[in-house]
Design goal:
heterodimer; A: about 300 residues; alpha/beta; 6-stranded mixed sheet; 11 helices; elongated; B: mainly alpha; 10 helices
Chain lengths: ~300, ~250
C-alpha cells in the first residue's frame, strides 16, 4: 500500500546566526499516521516542526506540506493544519469559550465548538479564565483550538511536557482519537514512552540531524535485539542447562537469581521451555524488553535526559 | 483580508476590562484628575487671569496628550507581553495577520479613549464655566488624528521590544522628552533655534500645536502643515512597524 505523503522534508537546514539548529534533515509523514520526531531538548525538534508549520523560514532544503510551500502559501496552509505550540499561552483573562469562538472566526469552516469542548472534557470550564486552568486543561484547550477547523493535519509539539502521569494518559487517548478521525498527526516529544505508545513511526533527532527512522518496534529490533529473562530458582540449578538455549548471550547467577540475556523474538519462549524441561521450580519470573529509551542510548551513547 | 478583526477586538476589549486596573486606570484616573485639578484651579481662576488660561487652554490639551501617551505605553506593554508569553506566536499559527492584531488594539484604545473623553466632557460641563470656542466635532477630528499619529510611534516600539520589562522604560525614554519639547509647557520660540528645529521633528509638537489651535477656535487651514506632519508620521511609523514586526 503506497500511502500518500502529507509532509515531505528534504535536506532541511535552519541556522540561528552561527548556530546550526537543523542540518540536512529529511523525512516524510504519511497520510493517516502518527509520526513522532523524538530527541532530547535542543536537538532541533521544535525548529524542524516550526519550519514545516510555516512559522519559520528555512535556510536550505525543501519542505512541502499538503503539496503547499509552508512559507509562501502560509495563509492557505494555516486553513488546513491545526497547530499546538510548545510553551504557548493565551491571554490570561480570555475565557475558554471565547478562545474557541475567536479561533472559529478565523477559519472559513469549523466544527461545533461546544461539542469539541465536551469531547475534550472541558465543557464545565467553558466560562473559566485561561489563567485559572490546570496544565492538562490548558493543553486540552490548545488541542481544541488545533481541531476547531477540522484540519487534515495536526501538529503537537511537546504536548504532555510538564503534565502529571494521569493527565498525560488522558491526553494520549485524545491523540489516538485524532488519528481515529482520519487525521494525520505530527508530534515531537522527548518522552520515549510517549513515542512508543502513540507513534506509528518515529524519527530520532540529535544535534540537528536525524540518526534513525522507522516504526518503534523495528528500531528496537534492529538496534537492541537483546531480551532478558530474570528469575529466582528453588534449590540447586545447573547453569549449564541455560547455556544450551538458542540465542543465549550471557548467563548470570547471583543472590537475586538468574539473569539470562539473549537475542531473537523466540528467546523468552526458549527460556521457558528450558526451565520446564529441566523441571526447575521458578519464582518471580519476569522479562525485560528493550524500549526506545534503550535504542536512544545505543544510538547516541547517552540517555535522553542527559 | 482582516479575518477575525471584529471578534478579536470584542474579546480584547472584554479582556482589558477584566484587568484589575483596566477600566479604573484608563478611564477613572484621568477623569478624576481632571475634575480635581479643575476644581482647584477654578477657585483660583477668580483671582488671576493666568489661571483662567491654564484651566481653559492648558488643561484640556494636557489631558488629551496624557491619554495618548498612556495609550502608547499600554499598547506597547500589551504587545510585548503577548510576545513574551508566546501568544503572538500562537496567533501566527492561524490565518490571523500582524496588522489585524495591531489594528485590534488601536480600536480598543480608541474606544476606551472615546469613553474617557465622553466622561471628561460631562465632567467639564458640570465643573467648568470656562467658555469653549472649539467646535466639538472639529476638536474630535484633531484629537483622532493626533491620537493615531502618536499611537503609531507605539506600533514601532511594540513591534520590536522583546519583553514587557523593556517596553515601559523604552516607551518613557522616547515619549517624555517629546512631551517636554512639545511646546505644551513653554513656548518653543523661547528655545535656541537648533532645539526648535529638533522639536519640530517630533510628532507630539505638531499634535500639541494642532490641538491648541483647534481648541482656541482656529481654522484647519491654519494648521495644514501640522496635519501633514501628523499624517506623514502615521504612515511612516505604520509601514515601518509592519516591516519590523517580530512575532517572538
Amino acid at each position: 500500500m503506497a500511502a500518500t505523503n502529507v509532509i515531505e522534508v528534504t535536506g532541511l537546514r535552519k541556522t540561528y546566526g552561527k548556530l546550526v539548529a537543523v542540518d540536512d534533515v529529511s523525512f516524510e509523514v504519511r497520510e493517516g499516521e502518527i509520526f513522532g520526531l523524538i530527541g532530547p531538548n535542543g536537538a532541533g525538534k521544535t525548529t524542524s516542526m516550526e519550519c514545516v508549520e510555516g512559522i519559520r523560514k528555512i535556510d536550505g532544503g525543501a519542505v512541502s506540506v499538503l503539496a503547499l510551500d509552508p512559507w509562501k502559501d502560509s495563509q492557505e496552509l494555516q486553513d488546513r493544519i491545526g497547530v499546538q505550540l510548545q510553551q504557548a499561552q493565551l491571554q490570561k483573562r480570555i475565557k475558554v469559550w471565547e478562545a474557541v469562538d475567536l479561533w472559529a472566526s478565523l477559519y472559513p469552516s469549523t466544527v461545533d465548538g461546544d461539542r469539541l469542548l465536551e469531547q475534550l472534557g472541558l465543557d464545565d470550564k467553558r466560562d473559566a479564565w485561561f489563567m485559572t486552568l490546570s496544565g492538562g486543561q490548558k493543553q486540552r484547550l490548545f488541542i481544541a483550538l488545533a481541531l476547531i477547523h477540522d484540519p487534515d493535519l495536526v501538529f503537537l509539539d511537546e504536548l504532555t511536557t510538564g503534565l502529571d502521569p494521569q493527565a498525560r494518559h488522558a491526553i494520549w487517548d485524545l491523540v489516538r482519537d485524532i488519528k481515529t478521525r482520519g487525521k494525520t498527526v505530527f508530534l515531537t516529544t522527548h518522552l520515549m514512552e510517549e513515542a512508543e505508545r502513540l507513534c506509528d513511526r518515529v524519527a530520532v533527532i540529535e544535534h540537528g540531524r536525524i540518526i534513525a527512522m522507522d516504526t518503534p518496534a523495528a528500531l528496537v529490533r534492529e538496534h537492541c535485539p537483546e531480551r532478558a529473562a530474570i528469575f529466582q530458582a528453588d534449590g540447586e540449578v545447573d547453569a549449564a542447562v541455560f547455556e544450551r538455549i538458542p540465542g543465549i548471550a550471557s548467563v548470570d547467577s547471583g543472590d537475586s537469581g538468574f539473569t539470562l540475556k539473549g537475542r531473537g523474538d523466540d528467546f523468552v519462549s526458549e527460556v521457558i521451555h528450558a526451565i520446564s524441561e529441566s523441571s526447575i521450580r521458578v519464582r518471580d519470573f519476569r522479562t525485560e524488553t528493550p524500549s526506545l529509551e534503550d535504542v536512544f542510548l545505543k544510538l547516541t551513547g547517552h540517555s535522553i535526559r542527559d | 483580508m482582516l479575518r477575525g478583526l471584529f471578534k478579536l477586538t470584542w474579546v480584547e476589549l472584554k479582556i482589558f476590562l477584566r484587568e484589575p486596573m483596566g477600566a479604573i486606570g484608563t478611564i477613572g484616573v484621568p477623569v478624576l484628575m481632571f475634575v480635581v485639578l479643575g476644581r482647584i484651579f477654578q477657585k483660583r481662576a477668580e483671582l488671576s487671569a493666568d489661571v483662567t488660561t491654564f484651566v481653559a487652554v492648558f488643561l484640556p490639551i494636557f489631558a488629551t496628550i496624557l491619554i495618548a501617551l498612556s495609550n502608547v505605553l499600554s499598547l506597547t506593554a500589551i504587545i510585548s507581553i503577548y510576545r513574551e508569553h508566546g501568544i503572538l506566536k500562537r496567533l501566527k499559527a492561524t490565518p490571523l495577520r500582524a496588522q489585524t492584531i495591531l489594528i485590534t488594539h488601536v480600536i480598543v484604545k480608541l474606544l476606551l479613549t472615546v469613553a474617557t473623553l465622553f466622561l471628561l466632557v460631562l465632567a467639564g460641563k458640570t465643573f467648568y464655566t470656562a467658555e469653549v470656542q472649539a467646535h466639538p466635532l472639529s476638536f474630535a477630528a484633531a484629537m483622532l488624528l493626533s491620537m493615531l499619529s502618536i499611537l503609531s510611534i507605539g506600533f514601532v516600539i511594540a513591534s520590536i521590544v522583546p519583553t514587557a520589562r523593556f517596553a515601559q522604560p523604552v516607551g518613557s525614554v522616547i515619549l517624555y522628552p517629546m512631551l517636554a519639547f512639545s511646546g505644551l509647557f513653554f513656548p518653543l520660540d523661547a528655545l535656541p533655534e537648533p532645539v526648535q528645529v529638533a522639536a519640530n521633528l517630533l510628532p507630539l509638537t505638531h499634535a500639541v500645536g494642532l490641538l491648541q489651535g483647534i481648541w482656541t477656535g482656529g481654522a484647519w487651514s491654519d494648521h495644514l502643515w501640522q496635519v501633514a506632519a501628523l499624517v506623514a508620521n502615521f504612515v511612516v511609523c505604520t509601514v515601518l512597524a509592519g516591516k519590523i514586526f517580530r512575532w517572538e
